[in-house]
Amino acid sequence: MSSIHAQAIDFKGLPADKSKTGGWIPAGLILGIELCERLSTMGIAVNLVTYLAGQMHLSTSASANIVTDFMGTSFLLCFLGGFLADSFLGRFRTVAISAVIQTIGTALLALSTRLPSLHPPPCDTTNSDKCEPANNFQMGILYLSLYLIALGTGGLKSSVSGFGADQFDENDEKEKANLAYFFNRFFFFITTGTLVAVTVLVYIQEEVSRTLAYGICSVSMFIAIFAFFLGTKRYRYQRSHGSPISHILQVIVAATRKRKMNLPYNTGLLYETFSDTSRIHHTDQFRFLDKAAIIGEGDHVKGGISDCNPWTTCSVTRVEEVKAVIRLLPIWATTILFWTTYAQILTFSVEQASTMKRSIGSFQIPAASLTVFFVLAVLVTLAVYDRVVIPLWKKWRGKAGLTNLQRISLGLLLSVIGMAAATMSELKRQSVARANPGTSVLPVSVFFLIPQFLLIGAGEAFTYTGQLDFFITESPKGMKGLSTGLFLVTISLGFFVSSFLVFIIQKITTSFGSGQGWIGDNINKGRLDCFYGLLCMLSFINFGLFIVAANWYTAQKSEPILQKISPAEEC
C-alpha cells in the first residue's frame, strides 16, 4: 500500500508521506488544544453570572443575558471561522490564530478581575441595597475580553475537529478505524475539560481567587499553543476547495437572474458538469432553483474556455446541494429552543443554587459546581445508550440504535420534562424564601435542583449527538462543513433566544406588575417559576412542531430521479 496520502499535503505543500505525517501524535496535540479551549470557555461561562451580579453589581437579568449573549456569540462565530478556514486561511492557521486570540482575551479577563480600577468597589456593608454598578469603561474592558474569547472559541470550534480528522486517511482501513476512535476521544476531551472547569476551576474562583483561575486558563492555552506549533511538520493539511456558501449564493443569484425563463420539459437539457459517480440527480422539489441550471444564450464561453459562469449557470448537482440544505431547515429551526432551555443551566440554575444550602459536613459546594451533575448525566446517558440501548435495539428492531431524528425527539421531550422539574423545584425554593424573609442561605437543600440538571443533561446527550449525526449524514458531500456550522448555529441562536425572552418577559412583567417583575435583582422576590413554566410550555409546543417537521422530512426525502436520457450538452 502506498505511503503517500493522495488528498493531503505536508507543510511544504508536497503530497503527504503517511509514514512521516498524521496519526495519533499530531492528533493528540490537536486534542490538547481543544481540552484547554473547553477548560477556558466553560470555566468562565459557568460561573460568570455570579461574578457579574456579585462583583460588577449588575441585575440578575442583565447578568444572565451577558452570559447567554457571550455563549451565543461564541457559537455564532463558528460560522465565520468555518468560512475563513474553507476559503482563505485553512484549518491550521484558523486554529492557531483563534487560540492566540482566546489566550489574549482570557489574560485580559484575569487582569480585569485583579485591578481595582476595572471593577466597582465592594458594596457598603451597612447598606447593601445601594451598590455602585460597574461604569461604562469597566464594562467595556469586560466586554472586550469576553468577545475576544468568543472570537477565539468560534474559530477553534469550527476547525479543530476537522483538522484532527485530517490526520487520518479515510481510504486506509487501519487509519479509518483510528478516525472513529479520534471522534470518541475528541468528545471525551471536551467532557474532561468541562468537568475540570465546573469543579476545580469553579472552586478556585469561589474559594481562592478568580484572577488565579482565569490566569490558569490563559497559561494552559499558551502551553497548548506552544505544543500545537511543535507539530507543524507532522500535520497533514488539506487544500482549500472553496466555500459552500459561495456555491449557495451562486445558485440563488443564477436562479433569480433566469426567473423569467421557462424550464425545459426534458430535465436532461439542464446543465451538468459532474461525473456519474459524483453527481446528484435531479429532484422535483423547489423547482424555482432549477432555473439556475438552464443553458441560455451567452453561457457558452468564459475566457475562451468551454465553461459556464457559475453566477449565471450552475450544474444540476450544485442546485440539488442547495435543495438538500433547504430540506434541513425545518429540523434546524425546531431544535433551537432546546438550547434555550440548556442556557438556563448556565445562568438561573447557578443563581438558584447560590441561595440554597450547599454544605456537606464542613465542605461548601460552589454554586456553579452543581453543573457537574449535568456533565455526569451526559456521560452516563451516552454510556447506557452505547452499551445497553444499541445492543437491545439491534436485537429487537434489527437496527443499530435510534435514528438521528428519534434521538433528537427524545432529547426535546426530556427538555420539556426537565423544565417542568425546574418549575417544581423553584416553587419549593420560593415557598421556603417566603417563609424565611431576609435569610441569605435558605434552609432548603440544593440537591432539589439535581432532577433538572439530570434531565436537561440527558436531553443534551441525545439532542447533540442526534443533531450532529443528522446534519453531517443528511447533507451533500460538498457541504459537510456548512451543515456542521448550521448545527452549531442552533446552539448560538438558543442562547440569543434566551436573552430575548428574558428581556421581553422582564419588561412586560415589570410594566404590568406591581413588583420587580419575574426576573429581578433579587431572585427570592421574583417569579422564576413562572418563567420556567413558560419555557416548559414553549418547549412542549416546539416538540410538537419538531414531530411535524420530522414527518415532513421523512416523507419528502426521496431517492434521486435517475436520468434515462442523454447527458446535458456542454456550454
Automatic annotation (TrEMBL):
<feature type="transmembrane region" description="Helical">
    <location>
        <begin position="365"/>
        <end position="385"/>
    </location>
</feature>
<feature type="transmembrane region" description="Helical">
    <location>
        <begin position="485"/>
        <end position="505"/>
    </location>
</feature>
<feature type="transmembrane region" description="Helical">
    <location>
        <begin position="531"/>
        <end position="554"/>
    </location>
</feature>
<dbReference type="InterPro" id="IPR036259">
    <property type="entry name" value="MFS_trans_sf"/>
</dbReference>
<feature type="transmembrane region" description="Helical">
    <location>
        <begin position="444"/>
        <end position="464"/>
    </location>
</feature>
<keyword id="KW-0812">Transmembrane</keyword>
<dbReference type="InterPro" id="IPR018456">
    <property type="entry name" value="PTR2_symporter_CS"/>
</dbReference>
<feature type="transmembrane region" description="Helical">
    <location>
        <begin position="405"/>
        <end position="424"/>
    </location>
</feature>
<feature type="transmembrane region" description="Helical">
    <location>
        <begin position="141"/>
        <end position="165"/>
    </location>
</feature>
<feature type="transmembrane region" description="Helical">
    <location>
        <begin position="92"/>
        <end position="111"/>
    </location>
</feature>
<dbReference type="InterPro" id="IPR000109">
    <property type="entry name" value="POT_fam"/>
</dbReference>
<feature type="transmembrane region" description="Helical">
    <location>
        <begin position="325"/>
        <end position="345"/>
    </location>
</feature>
<keyword id="KW-1133">Transmembrane helix</keyword>
<feature type="transmembrane region" description="Helical">
    <location>
        <begin position="186"/>
        <end position="205"/>
    </location>
</feature>
<comment type="similarity">
    <text>Belongs to the major facilitator superfamily. Proton-dependent oligopeptide transporter (POT/PTR) (TC 2.A.17) family.</text>
</comment>
<keyword id="KW-0472">Membrane</keyword>
<protein>
    <submittedName>
        <fullName>Protein NRT1/ PTR FAMILY 6.2</fullName>
    </submittedName>
</protein>
<feature type="transmembrane region" description="Helical">
    <location>
        <begin position="211"/>
        <end position="231"/>
    </location>
</feature>
<dbReference type="Pfam" id="PF00854">
    <property type="entry name" value="PTR2"/>
</dbReference>
<feature type="transmembrane region" description="Helical">
    <location>
        <begin position="66"/>
        <end position="85"/>
    </location>
</feature>
